[in-house]
Amino acid sequence: MDLLPTPVALPRRLAGRPEWAVVDVETSGLRPWQHRVLSVAVLTLSSSGELLEEFSTLLDPGCDPGPVHIHGLTSKRLSGAPAFEEVADQIGALLTGRVMVAHNAQFDYDFLAHEFARARSWLPVSQRLCTLALNRRVSPATDDLKLATLAAHYGVRQQQAHDALDDARVLAGVLRGSLLAAEGLGLELPLMPCPPKQGSGYPPRVPKTPCAYMNPGRLPAGGPLMQGMKIAFTGDTRVSREELVARAVAAGLNVVGSVSRHTSAVVTNERDGDTAKTRAAQENGVPMTTETAFIEMLADVLPGTSHKTSPVHDPQGTPFPGPRSCAQGAAGPFIGRRFLVLGGQHDDAALIRTQIAELGGSVAVNLSTSVTDAVVLPGGENDRRMPRITARNLPLRDASWLQSLTPAPAPALGQSAAPQPPEIVSVLPRGGVIDLPHSKPPSRWSVAASWGHQTSCQIDVVAFIVDEDEQVSYDEDFVFYGAPESPNGTVRLATEGPCEQAITVDLAALPDAARKVVIAAAIDGSATFADVGAIEITIAPGTSERAVAEATLDAATTERSLVLAELYRRGPIWRARAVGQGYDYGLASLARGFGVDITD
Q1: Does one domain contain both 155 and 277?
Q2: According to the model, what pLDDT value does residue 175 have?
Q3: Whether the Cβ atoms of residue 42 and residue 56 lie closer than 8 Å to each other
Q4: First vs last Cα of the chain: how many Å apart?
Q5: CATH code for position 590
Q6: Which residues touch 36 (CB under 8 Å, ≥6 apart)?
Q7: What φ, ψ does residue 226 adopt, rounded to 5°?
Q8: What is the CATH number of the domain that holds 283?
Q9: Percentage of the chain with pLDDT > 90?
Q10: How buried is 195 (Cβ within 10 angstroms: 0-12 exposed, 13-18 middle, 19+ buried)?
Q11: DSSP string spanning 460-509?
Q12: Is the peptide bond before 203 cis (omega within 30 degrees of 0)?
């Protein structure tokens, strides 16, 4: 797998005062390369938010319209509407030279980009603004960030949800209110550059069938093979590689693209050959066998243990008999309060953020309406946000004030923390764990990451879908900027702004072999997380729902990659863990550690 270069970010502020093109689409499904746009609305606004022009139309997609119960667009109603290519020029003229605005903008952008591509044209958008990402920065006092909720907060009237034109009108009002709130806080807008699609990951490659069996370990001397063994091939073979892989998969073996300590055997006709896989096999003591011997062993493969019937283990490898409660974040005098730490050296600021979490408070990485206190360390008095903080009359604290307070004792293992009001989000320390609801649970969960708006280096959020050996089953289980969605759509990466990215996971659709989804961040180039500061993560049931947990994580001064969080199976339930483990190497080495075959 090649790690494609990260697109170069454009300046976050547009030159002059931009005009806006507010967009909403209704679609036949959720996958832009597979489903179609059924209706589209575009409202153009002046830089001051004044309405310039409205356009809306139904579209005949030439296919099943999908969830009619949501959008109400039946095939009969769409019959006779224009095809997208008939209105593409008109839509393109409205978008050209303007910032495209949408709620969950990547969704609308990707659908329009694919529709323009089908019309043998291109989407004339160079930057977009997501009102969902913008309001994550503003952090209004709302239960969630759904369009209807934000409309009520900003005093915008909604008449008909899931109607493209009405949704676009509502969104225009939400945009006006959001821009005023951002201006009051001195926030930069999360403008996203929109380079032309290069096709990578659209659609993702279809991998081999996932292996249904657990890895039984190494191939013993003289055989036999057992279902679930991880087999790697390297070098030239007499039988075509495709046929060997197909026969191995049909026998219940797990063909992997790289070699690690979890690999059962390497099949090669050149035991002394100098390939990356043979070197890795020698370094890890992985047995090697010839193609001829492997084919003979395929005739008698022992049955393996199915993932469905295997005992479930916790991340440390201890068998787990059933569900239990766990600490839901710290308790203490800071419950319900949110702190912004200004100034100080990296290590000093990280220590202060840890102390705040121990006292039950949450820690912000940027100024928003949810911030209740500011901690000013040496140099913090010169922070550009200080005028906004003093204008809001926020209490200013120092390190000595924190030292005078005593953290609440942590709950004993197996004991829940003190009950918190339902509106308080659980604050997880490094290593903290929370049970995800398992009584009628939501299927999709989102882990969103954000960092300082003034960060100049490029940060990439990625995800690995791993098995009981903490290895991917195949390269497509690595979700990153070059392949932003797993082949079956269960794990997706959304880039909402220059400093906001999120991984969404459909837990119900994950294969049985998937024991954990690991979410990480990596810095492109030579910068380290000391240059970035803290990373804030939120865990929520969906992209616009209220978060159930959050954590603020600091890496050490030399680290270039950071494991942020894990979603993992524990008995009959799923759990979320705030990890915060950093490494001195970059994304390529991190990916190799999870079994991804990276081509340098």
Answers
A1: no
A2: 97
A3: yes
A4: 9
A5: 2.60.60.30
A6: 27, 28, 59, 61, 62, 63, 84, 115
A7: -135, 140
A8: 3.40.50.10190
A9: 54
A10: exposed
A11: EEEEEEE-TTS-BSSGGGEEBTTB-B-TTSSEEEEEEETTEEEEEEEGGG
A12: yes
Q: 202 exposed, middle or buried (CB, 10 Å; 0-12, 13-18, 19+)? A: middle
Residue type, 77: R
What is the reported pTM? 0.78
- Torsion, Cα of 152, 157, 162, 163 (10° steps): -160
How many angstroms separate the CA atoms of 384 and 381, rounded? Answer: 9
In a domain, 364, yes or no: no
Note the pLDDT of residue 208.
56
> Based on the domain organization, do 273 and 127 belong to the same domain?
no
Rounded mean pLDDT, 148-153: 95
Q: Are residues 513 and 561 in the same domain?
A: yes
Strand segments (E) across 377-457: 396-397, 426-427, 433-435, 444-450
Spatial contact of 167 and 161, defined as CB atoms under 8 Å apart: yes
Q: Which of 348, 260, 251 is nearest to 296 (CA)?
A: 251
What band does 599 get if pLDDT is binned at 50, 70 and 90?
low
Where does a domain end: 253, 276, 300? 300
Domain of residue 52, CATH code = 3.30.420.10
Do residues 113 and 39 share a domain? yes
Q: Is residue 355 part of a domain?
A: no
Q: Determine the structural domain holding residue 490 and report its residue range.
A: 423-600
User: Which residue, 422, 343, 423, is CA-closest to 380?
Assistant: 343
Q: Are residues 247 and 155 in the same domain?
A: no
Task: For residues 410 and 310, give the distance between their C-alpha atoms in angstroms, rounded to a whole number.
Answer: 33
Task: Establish how many alpha carbons lie within 13 A of residue 222's alpha carbon, considering only the half-sphere containing its beta carbon.
Answer: 0
User: Shortest CA distance to 252 belongs to which of 310, 305, 309, 313?
Assistant: 305
Number of domains in the chain: 3
In a domain, 140, yes or no: yes
Residues 264, 286: Cα–Cα separation, whole Å: 7
- Only one residue has tokens 């440390």, namely 316
CB atoms within 10 A of CB 582: 20
Within this chain, do residues 245 and 186 fall inside the same structural domain, yes or no?
A: no
For residue 456, give both structure tokens.
Answer: 């100049």
Q: Which of these three, 142, 168, 193, is where a domain ends?
A: 193
Phi, psi (5° rounding) for residue 100? -75, 130
Helix residue ranges per DSSP H, 324-395: 346-358, 386-391
Query: How buried is residue 215: exposed, middle or buried, by Cβ count under 10 Å (0-12/13-18/19+)?
Result: buried
Residue keyed to tokens 């940027």: 366
320 within some domain: no
Residue 360 · residue 330 · CB < 8 Å? yes
In terms of domains, do 108 and 163 share one?
A: yes
d(CA 402, CA 407): 10
Q: How do residues 124-144 score in pLDDT, each as one tens digit?
A: 999 999 999 999 999 999 999
Which residue in the block uniquely carries the two structure tokens 């310039």? 52
The pLDDT of residue 418:
44
**pLDDT value of residue 216:** 92
Q: Which two structure tokens, joined as six digits, stand for 168?
A: 């676009």
Calpha distance 463→461 (Å, rounded): 7
State the alpha helices, DSSP H only, in 424-528. Answer: none
Strands 191-193 and 265-267: what pairing?
unpaired
Asked if the model's pLDDT at residue 201 lies above 70, the reply is no
Q: What is the pLDDT of residues 30-76, one digit of tens each?
A: 888 889 999 999 999 999 899 999 999 999 998 888 888 788 888 89
